[in-house]
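Possible regression after last week's pipeline update?

I re-ran a chain I had predicted before the update to compare outputs. Posting the input and the new output here so someone can diff against the archived version. Not blocking, just want to make sure nothing changed silently.
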Amino acid sequence: MGLPEFSTKKPVTTVMIFVGVILFGFISLMKLPQELFPPITYPQLTVFTVYANAAPEEVETLLTKPIEEAVGTVSGLKTIRSISKEGVSLVMAEFDWDQNMDFASLRTREKVDLAKARLPREASEPLVVPFNPFEMPIMTISVTGDRSPASLRQLSIDTIKEELEKVDGVASASVEGGLEREIIVEVNQNKLKSHGISILDVSDSITNANLNYPAGTIKESFYEYLIRTLGEFQDVEEIGQVVVKSRDKDEERLASMSYEQRDALREISQQANAVLVKDVAEVEDTFKERSSYSRYNGEENVSVSVQKQAQANTMQVINNIRSEFPRLDKILPDDVEIKVIYDQSIFIQDAINGVRDAALQGGVLAFLVLLFFLRNVKASTIVTLSIPISIMVVFTLMHFGGLSINMMSLGGLALGVGMLVDNAIVVIENIFRHRELGKGALEAASEGAEEVSNAIVASTLTTIAVFLPMVFVVGIAGQLFKQLAFTVTFSLVGSLWVALTLIPLLSCKLGGSSATAKTAKAFSGGAGWKNMLKKYE
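New output (post-update):
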């Protein structure tokens, strides 16, 4: 028993199957991730290491070469490049396109961990960072207000950035523009020489003084308290009071005194003879030198760019961010205004609306063309119904195939919409031909669809054979067009299944009257075709 015969003899089962498919299609549509582009994984990892105040030659010898030797043993590695700059080492490892980058990143981190023992202690922890040139922020927010650029930037960092990073699906928020505070300790070289102090003594003194240390615990009967010594600077003036060096004392004279006299004299001597930071340098509270400016509509602003998490739904994350704006307006001062200047969901929604409009227009035009040739409203309606049902099949297969709604998959769906009615037209035309021969509705639907099943299967497979091999293309092009190939394939498979099951059933139940057969016969074999053929004689 073939599909056409099964669908006509088991109408209730067939209808329930399609009801389930439509239900699955709607559920899948609600759960499909909506992106601007397909997720792209670029096979490159960068090992980033900082070695402050080191020359490029030292960075290359002490950092870059040991890391290159370690990363070079990772399996699947294609090429390795490195850049050694002042205080920074960059080792870029490129892998084959068929490599799983999650496992490649894990293997690279393992090799880098083994090389840590050979790196200088002053160097920072090596970071293994994946490279994705298509990773863009999903939203950019402009922050303006009647206040200084430094105050506006600090407000954006303390309030807007912190609140946005709490939103579900947001990975990070970066702040650009404004002025960033910087404390400069400008050392006087002549004063250093007069006191016999090096610039490293000043740097080490400030570093050691600006720390909080643990100081043990205090235990009580029911509680245990952790003690900390708070040594971090609370004010800029405290930096100038840091002791850099104390002059030597007359230890022989101190040895003849009692302990009380000795301690008192040492304290007085240290206060009188201590060399402070302010004695050899000037401490300035200023701002970092600007390397870029951020403006919106000619007015200086602060930009906040929001990045989403890897598997998060872009539309859902943007909706969550927008729902947070009313609460932000209540928290922020009255003079501060936030405005969205880039929203990726607008492009996604436009693409979805474009495909929706194309499907509706295609359905209407297909109905009109079928009505013109078949001269039967029921038959035209039956064929037109195959479009939305086939699209529901596509959404279901996309969900289980792990695809997303993006520019490429929607392009494939729009491309497939024009092919969805091809199989249905062939099937219903052959069913009408069997009705002309005097067969009953059930027999004509079953035999007519079965007769052309091999032909439409072959026709569908020839089209699939053109698009499906695109999934084997490697590189950026392969990742971009893979979802388009799958979407076209899914739409063709869905239209073939609908044409062999639903079209015979609906033709049998809705288009099986004798009037329909007479109309079809009059147009297909009678005066309708004869009049048309005379025009070409």
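Follow-up from reviewer: compared with the archived run. The chain has 21 helices and 16 strands. Marking as no regression found.
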